[in-house]
Amino acid sequence: MILIGYRADDSYFSFAESFVQNGLPLRSLNEALHLGKLGTQTVLISEKAFRNLTFDGAGFADKTVYYPKFIARDSNARETYRKEIRNRRSYKNDIFVLDILREEMKDNDSRIQRILSI
Protein backbone atom coordinates (compact mmCIF):
# COMPACT_ATOMS: atom_id res chain seq x y z
CA MET A 1 0.00 0.00 0.00
CA ILE A 2 1.19 3.50 -0.84
CA LEU A 3 -0.10 6.60 0.92
CA ILE A 4 0.33 10.09 -0.44
CA GLY A 5 -0.41 13.03 1.83
CA TYR A 6 0.64 16.40 3.11
CA ARG A 7 4.12 16.80 4.51
CA ALA A 8 4.35 17.33 8.25
CA ASP A 9 7.62 19.21 8.42
CA ASP A 10 6.60 22.71 7.45
CA SER A 11 3.68 25.13 7.68
CA TYR A 12 1.15 22.34 7.31
CA PHE A 13 1.98 21.14 10.81
CA SER A 14 1.12 24.49 12.40
CA PHE A 15 -2.13 24.71 10.39
CA ALA A 16 -3.17 21.24 11.54
CA GLU A 17 -2.16 22.08 15.11
CA SER A 18 -4.51 25.09 15.09
CA PHE A 19 -7.33 22.83 13.89
CA VAL A 20 -6.65 20.16 16.53
CA GLN A 21 -6.60 22.87 19.23
CA ASN A 22 -10.11 23.86 18.06
CA GLY A 23 -8.85 27.25 16.88
CA LEU A 24 -9.45 26.76 13.18
CA PRO A 25 -12.54 25.37 11.42
CA LEU A 26 -12.22 22.54 8.91
CA ARG A 27 -13.08 24.92 6.04
CA SER A 28 -10.10 27.13 6.89
CA LEU A 29 -7.78 24.16 7.44
CA ASN A 30 -8.71 22.85 4.00
CA GLU A 31 -7.82 26.22 2.46
CA ALA A 32 -4.60 26.51 4.46
CA LEU A 33 -3.39 23.11 3.28
CA HIS A 34 -3.44 24.36 -0.29
CA LEU A 35 -1.24 27.40 0.39
CA GLY A 36 2.24 27.69 -1.01
CA LYS A 37 2.25 24.35 -2.83
CA LEU A 38 4.53 23.09 -0.09
CA GLY A 39 4.43 19.53 -1.25
CA THR A 40 3.38 16.04 -0.41
CA GLN A 41 5.15 12.99 0.82
CA THR A 42 4.78 9.40 -0.28
CA VAL A 43 4.97 6.56 2.21
CA LEU A 44 5.24 2.86 1.40
CA ILE A 45 3.49 0.83 4.08
CA SER A 46 3.22 -2.70 2.71
CA GLU A 47 5.69 -5.39 1.72
CA LYS A 48 4.18 -5.46 -1.77
CA ALA A 49 4.90 -1.75 -2.22
CA PHE A 50 8.52 -2.27 -1.15
CA ARG A 51 8.94 -5.29 -3.45
CA ASN A 52 7.79 -3.24 -6.44
CA LEU A 53 10.19 -0.42 -5.67
CA THR A 54 13.16 -0.05 -8.02
CA PHE A 55 16.11 2.31 -7.93
CA ASP A 56 16.19 4.43 -11.06
CA GLY A 57 19.05 6.75 -10.20
CA ALA A 58 19.91 9.72 -8.04
CA GLY A 59 20.71 13.34 -8.60
CA PHE A 60 22.32 16.12 -6.62
CA ALA A 61 20.01 18.76 -5.15
CA ASP A 62 21.98 21.93 -4.53
CA LYS A 63 20.89 23.40 -1.20
CA THR A 64 21.82 26.90 -2.35
CA VAL A 65 19.14 26.57 -5.05
CA TYR A 66 16.39 24.50 -3.44
CA TYR A 67 16.48 25.53 0.22
CA PRO A 68 15.76 29.21 -0.53
CA LYS A 69 12.85 28.09 -2.73
CA PHE A 70 11.45 25.99 0.13
CA ILE A 71 11.84 28.87 2.59
CA ALA A 72 10.11 31.28 0.19
CA ARG A 73 7.15 28.91 -0.31
CA ASP A 74 6.89 28.25 3.42
CA SER A 75 7.09 31.95 4.31
CA ASN A 76 4.50 32.84 1.69
CA ALA A 77 2.12 30.17 2.97
CA ARG A 78 2.54 31.32 6.58
CA GLU A 79 2.00 34.98 5.64
CA THR A 80 -1.12 34.19 3.62
CA TYR A 81 -2.40 32.09 6.52
CA ARG A 82 -1.85 34.96 8.98
CA LYS A 83 -3.44 37.59 6.74
CA GLU A 84 -6.31 35.71 5.15
CA ILE A 85 -7.23 32.58 7.08
CA ARG A 86 -6.31 32.52 10.78
CA ASN A 87 -8.43 35.47 11.89
CA ARG A 88 -11.27 34.94 9.44
CA ARG A 89 -14.74 35.14 10.87
CA SER A 90 -16.27 31.77 11.71
CA TYR A 91 -19.68 30.90 10.41
CA LYS A 92 -22.54 29.09 12.09
CA ASN A 93 -22.10 26.00 9.94
CA ASP A 94 -18.31 25.78 10.32
CA ILE A 95 -17.07 22.46 11.66
CA PHE A 96 -14.41 22.45 14.37
CA VAL A 97 -12.57 19.41 15.68
CA LEU A 98 -14.73 19.49 18.81
CA ASP A 99 -17.85 19.17 16.62
CA ILE A 100 -16.34 16.15 14.89
CA LEU A 101 -15.57 14.50 18.22
CA ARG A 102 -18.87 15.31 19.93
CA GLU A 103 -20.98 14.19 17.00
CA GLU A 104 -18.69 11.24 16.25
CA MET A 105 -18.52 12.23 12.59
CA LYS A 106 -16.90 9.75 10.24
CA ASP A 107 -14.72 10.67 7.26
CA ASN A 108 -17.59 9.98 4.87
CA ASP A 109 -19.96 12.37 6.70
CA SER A 110 -21.62 14.58 4.08
CA ARG A 111 -20.87 17.74 6.10
CA ILE A 112 -17.16 16.97 6.03
CA GLN A 113 -17.18 15.91 2.39
CA ARG A 114 -18.97 19.13 1.40
CA ILE A 115 -16.16 21.20 2.91
CA LEU A 116 -13.32 19.07 1.55
CA SER A 117 -14.69 19.13 -1.99
CA ILE A 118 -14.43 22.93 -2.18
From TrEMBL:
Source domain of life: Bacteria
The name this protein goes by in its record: DUF3990 domain-containing protein
Organism of origin: Anaerobutyricum hallii
